[in-house]
């Protein structure tokens, strides 16, 4: 679909735009809905890739780059998702969405000074998000000129001085916040947190605050580690996989390979999701050339359970209850020895399971007892089980309790610390896990700060800083005056869009370090900078030679990524160089050798090796063929919990059943988007074309409300504080999902997510569980 700029300009000029600019490209045709019956990946994916490459004019650069992606110590890490590289190394382990993502960065289009001279910021703010990003790569630093309402060029030196001066003049360091999006490499991450802490603040909000915060906190509480304990080899040898709350075919497509292999091996694969997503059916693995040629597909599921939104904890409790009931006659149903030696809290957990009536478990999960027993039998019969999950579990009020319930279930049968078993969260951004490991944490531990202080000679602040929600609120109050975004698109990714806009606009200075133009550049503070950086695919040439950066995947593997493409512009700087530039200007008396670090990342790694657990001998180990795996104490059955054991939790079941007349609505991604980056208005696996402003509903819920297919509806969300937010004129699409549930796309629906609606357990915005009413448009 090729609308973008010209069409967009015409529409803008003719005043056709509504008050809110569109997110996706302008419609290229009539919206349509035809359920998709083909296997995931396969030729559908191949066709989509070739169309995309053709549109992006990347036919030459694209394929060559892809061959260099995710290869054993050569080439760059796919900036797509955080799924680990296949340890079999030589296979072309790539996916449709990874290719789109890399090509997106390698586009030949450029946004230079002429572009900014031509278009005022007011004009740009009327453009769709698609059109903004579609202009191509940013090429030089720009500063906002309020008199002319245009971005104008600024030298790197003056840009750093503006940041430095503004930070130096703050009344307190806590008046600045430093956001990270999960693509930032480990070395830049380390420098970034060092800068913030040397300035004197732990205000380090990150995308994780909206993503897997709940998973980290739950695993920390239960197992004394914030991460999963399994790796890809475990996936390749497990007997049963439970895949919960993830749309893998779109968001972690390389998981399809693991699922197909598991199926062929005879493993059981249980999908838990209100929707039956493409990964819960069949796949043709793109790198399996014989299957591609013959059209032979492999099943990727043995059981699908359509829970209600928020009903996962009830299902897990039901499975545990069934296993405990069986253990009365069959002691082998439990791993008694494991429970006695390695865990604490079992008796309380058993009591809470016994005390939770089946009727309540059925009501809260939205599933029949018979179906829950099927899942329990799979779990009971498997010698080794892995439970994997993503946002469908984490972005909820009770996300922490739910992930802890996963661990409870695993502990019952000793599914931890042995091959083929354990918890396996699917992380989002390619280095979001590495960010946390390397210090992006608004609640750092005292041990980490002590080591940082000792090694780096600084006096880091001890009080907790602000997370994402806290930062928006503080900007709005005027308590945070400087916002620095190290990647990402805060304006669109954060909840409560209009309020987040207000918050960013009330800042004295907003700084966005980015590769492409996005909403966060046109929704800005009184002063604003756009600082363009190298992408992961590009050669990073510093004084000591070509640099590499390291990243950590979902399964704790750390490896190097080396860009090989010529940079999009010769004025781009690497992220470490930009951070060093800002830090030097903001901290004139700093003991940290910022420039020296930015010249050679080996020097940063040497310091990291002294500060971070598990990074000993970093420079050598990261250069091993597949990098190295950070030790997971819980995998060795060493639990860094207060009791020194794995801790059962015994939380009561939350009430997630929607009140009469209301629905639970979850926001999610389409197949053709990467968070706030939208590639097209299609969602292939869900059968949608040319439409993003939609809401998926159960057919009976539609009928009851007098809503027909593609009928326009108004959606009103009610927040915890009773305030309401609304979206009008979205089109309803009947979908196979439980009654009482509805779903639609982020970021369009972020307008509905109240800032005050965050989980008490994780502080995560409730992006998967809004309380809404939906009615035909008036
Ligand atoms: N191509 C592509 N890849 C991506 C991304 C992208 O935007 N595009 N984003 C990356 C990022 S940052 C992340 S965090 C991940 C996100 O990966 P996902 O977690 O797959 O992201 P969502 O699209 O939000 O989909 C959530 C899934 O949870 C289901 N769900 C909703 N509510 C519930 C519930 O209550 N229970 C259960 N069991 N399921 C539920 C939805 O039906 C949907 O299948 O993907 C990463 N990878
Ligand atoms: N309603 C709702 N909201 C959500 C979610 C949801 O499920 N529902 N999901 C949440 C989740 S899981 C996440 S992770 C966040 C995502 O939030 P963010 O990470 O803030 O958003 P992205 O869309 O991934 O950021 C895209 C921008 O990153 C910049 N970029 C790309 N590559 C690079 C690079 O190499 N370096 C730098 N410096 N910049 C780069 C580009 O300018 C691009 O426009 O959104 C959250 N928001
Ligand atoms: Mo994420």
Features:
globular; binds ligand MGD; disordered N terminus; Rossmann fold; Dimethylsulfoxide Reductase, domain 2; Barwin-like endoglucanases; binds molybdenum atom; six-stranded mixed barrel; six-stranded mixed beta sheet; alpha/beta; molybdenum; 778 residues
Kindly describe this structure:
It is a single chain. With 778 residues, the protein is an alpha/beta fold. It folds into three domains: 110-205 and 431-630, Rossmann fold (3-Layer(aba) Sandwich), CATH 3.40.50; 213-425, Dimethylsulfoxide Reductase, domain 2, CATH 3.40.228; 660-776, Barwin-like endoglucanases, CATH 2.40.40. 35% of the residues lie in helices and 17% in strands. It has 32 helices and 33 strands. The strands form ten sheets. A six-stranded mixed beta sheet has the order 6-5-18-17-16-7, sandwiched between helices. The protein is globular and about 75 Å long. The model is unreliable at 1-19 and 88-92 (pLDDT under 50). Residues 207, 211, 428-429 line the site of molybdenum atom (MO). One ligand MGD binds at residues 81, 97, 211, 244-247, 250-252, 272-275, 277, 307, 309-310, 312, 390-392, 428-429, 666, 668-669, 673-675, 768.
């Amino acid at each position: 679909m090729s609308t973008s700029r010209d069409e967009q300009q015409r529409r803008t000029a003719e005043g056709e735009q509504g008050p809110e600019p569109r997110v996706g490209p302008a419609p290229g045709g009539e919206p349509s809905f035809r359920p998709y019956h083909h296997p995931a990946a396969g030729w559908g994916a191949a066709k989509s890739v070739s169309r995309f490459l053709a549109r992006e004019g990347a036919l030459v650069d694209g394929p060559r780059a892809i061959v260099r992606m995710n290869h054993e110590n050569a080439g760059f890490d796919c900036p797509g998702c955080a799924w680990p590289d296949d340890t079999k190394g030589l296979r072309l382990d790539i996916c449709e969405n990874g290719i789109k993502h890399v090509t997106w960065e390698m586009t030949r289009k450029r946004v230079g000074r002429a572009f900014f001279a031509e278009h005022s910021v007011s004009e740009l703010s009327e453009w769709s998000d698609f059109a903004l990003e579609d202009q191509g790569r940013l090429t030089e630093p720009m500063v906002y000129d309020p008199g002319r309402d245009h971005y104008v060029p600024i030298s790197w030196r003056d840009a750093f001085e503006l940041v430095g001066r503004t930070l130096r003049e703050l009344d307190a360091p806590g008046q600045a916040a430093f956001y990270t999006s999960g693509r930032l490499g480990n070395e830049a991450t380390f420098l970034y947190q060092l800068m913030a802490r040397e300035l004197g603040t732990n205000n380090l909000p990150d995308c994780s605050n909206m993503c897997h915060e709940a998973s980290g906190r739950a695993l920390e509480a239960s197992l004394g580690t914030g991460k999963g304990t399994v790796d890809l080899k475990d996936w390749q040898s497990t007997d049963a996989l439970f895949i919960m709350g993830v749309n893998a075919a779109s968001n972690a497509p390389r998981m399809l390979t693991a699922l197909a292999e598991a199926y062929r091996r005879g493993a059981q694969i249980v999908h838990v999701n209100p929707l039956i997503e493409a990964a819960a059916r069949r796949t043709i693995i793109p790198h399996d050339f014989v299957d591609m040629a013959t059209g032979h597909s492999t099943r990727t599921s043995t059981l699908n359970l359509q829970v209600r939104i928020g009903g996962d904890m009830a299902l897990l409790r039901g499975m545990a209850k069934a296993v405990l009931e069986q253990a009365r006659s069959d002691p082998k149903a439990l791993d008694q020895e494991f429970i006695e030696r390695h865990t604490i809290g079992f008796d309380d957990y058993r009591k809470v399971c016994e005390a939770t009536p089946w009727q309540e478990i059925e009501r809260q999960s939205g599933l029949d007892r018979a179906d829950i027993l099927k899942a329990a039998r799979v779990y009971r019969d498997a010698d080794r089980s892995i439970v994997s999950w993503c946002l469908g579990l984490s972005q909820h009020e009770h996300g922490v309790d739910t992930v802890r319930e996963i661990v409870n279930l695993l502990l019952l049968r000793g599914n931890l610390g042995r091959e083929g078993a354990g918890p396996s969260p699917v992380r989002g951004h390619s280095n979001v896990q590495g960010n946390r490991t390397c210090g992006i944490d608004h609640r750092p531990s005292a041990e980490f700060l002590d080591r940082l202080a000792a090694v780096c000679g600084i006096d880091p602040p001890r009080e907790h800083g602000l997370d994402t929600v806290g930062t928006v609120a503080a900007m709005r109050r005027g308590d945070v005056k400087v916002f620095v975004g190290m990647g990402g698109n805060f304006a669109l990714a954060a909840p409560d869009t209009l309020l987040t806009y207000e918050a960013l606009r009330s800042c004295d200075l907003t700084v966005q370090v980015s590769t492409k133009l996005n909403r966060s550049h046109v929704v800005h503070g009184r002063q604003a900078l756009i600082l363009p950086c190298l992408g992961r695919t590009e050669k990073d040439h510093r004084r000591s030679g070509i640099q590499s950066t390291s990243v950590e995947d979902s399964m704790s593997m750390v490896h190097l990524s080396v860009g090989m493409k010529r940079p999009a512009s010769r004025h781009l700087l690497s992220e470490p160089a930009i951070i060093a530039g800002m830090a030097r200007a903001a901290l004139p008396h700093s003991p940290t050798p910022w420039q020296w670090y930015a010249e050679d990342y080996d020097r940063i790694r040497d310091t990291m090796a002294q500060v971070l657990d598990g990074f000993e001998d970093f420079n050598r180990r990261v250069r091993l063929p597949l990098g190295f795996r950070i030790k997971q104490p819980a995998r060795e059955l060493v639990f860094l919990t207060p009791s020194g054991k794995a801790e059962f939790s015994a939380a009561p079941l939350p009430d997630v059943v929607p009140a009469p007349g209301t629905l639970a609505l979850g926001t999610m991604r389409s197949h053709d988007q990467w968070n706030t980056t939208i590639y097209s208005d299609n969602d292939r696996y869900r059968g949608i074309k040319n439409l993003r402003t939609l809401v998926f509903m159960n057919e009976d819920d539609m009928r009851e409300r007098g809503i027909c297919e593609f009928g326009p509806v108004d959606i009103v969300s009610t927040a915890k504080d009773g305030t309401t937010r609304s979206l009008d004129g979205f089109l309803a699409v009947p979908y196979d999902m439980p009654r009482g549930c509805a779903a639609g796309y982020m970021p369009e629906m972020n307008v509905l997510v109240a800032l005050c609606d965050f989980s008490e357990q994780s502080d995560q915005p409730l992006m998967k569980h809004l309380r809404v009413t939906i009615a035909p448009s008036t």
